[in-house]
Amino acid sequence: MLLVTACIAGGVTYAGLKTLVKLRLRKRKNWLIRVNDQAADHASSAASDSSQALDRSTDPLYFRLASVSLGLSTAGSLIYAPLGLVSVPLTVYVSLPVFENAYTALFKEVRFKMAIVHATIVVGTLATQHYVYASLFNWFHYYLAFAAEQLRAFNRVLTAELEHSYRQFMSQVYGASPRTVWVMTSGVGVEIPFEDLRVGDVIVVSAGEVVPVEGTIVEGTAEVVQFRPTRAVRPLEKRPGDSVVPSTMILSGKMNIRVVHL
Fold first, then answer.
1. Listed residue (226, 224, 262, 220) closest to 239, CA to CA
2. Per residue in 131-182, pLDDT tens?
3. Which of 92, 157, 167, 210 pairs as cysteine with 174 (C-beta 3.0–4.6 A)?
4. Which domains does the chain have, with CATH numbers?
5. Are 226 and 214 in contact (CB under 8 A)?
């Protein structure tokens, strides 16, 4: 019976918030004569608030506090009722980023977002003393946000490792350390041993050759292929100022490249 009451209360709150959004949208139509700079500042402020709330949603501290709140509310439901009341301040605290996001959506961005639903459920369950449901919903929210952030971090590390390993592999396959290279000296190309090449030298690479070093193009334009493990291989046009990496194959053209890293 209490759960039904919570659902009804949450539904009424949700309907009220949705109506409020519609009313504010109608009023917003009359504000379109505002100065562009004020509108830009308003949007920037709303985006900043939303970004801060999102950053806190991925904070491990909030996930840990949500876990403690869930434990207390569960213990209050099964063992000792006052523990459920102890969980309420924690539930409210970990809900603050959600409330801020919902407030930004309602009163600044004036659009409907899932944070409004989340805030409605938390308020409805707390108002009807369903502390376990409120803390459980928060726990799932922070668990998913924390897990997603960990997956993104793992993906970044894995991508970096793959690119590094693949670059080394391609360097071996294409012989990125030739015996000799052509270096521009006083406007004249001079062939020197690769071991004598130094950072800052300008080498000449022509069609059919592979770039042996990491550098920056100082002269010439060429069509190249850069082999990347996480991207499709396709021809690219390189111009002066662009950077090149080892194992870059020159399909057509000619480039003078200043050595940045051997």
1. 220
2. 888 888 888 888 888 888 888 889 888 888 877 776 666 655 555 577 889 9
3. 210
4. 2-152 (no CATH), 180-261 (2.70.150.10)
5. no
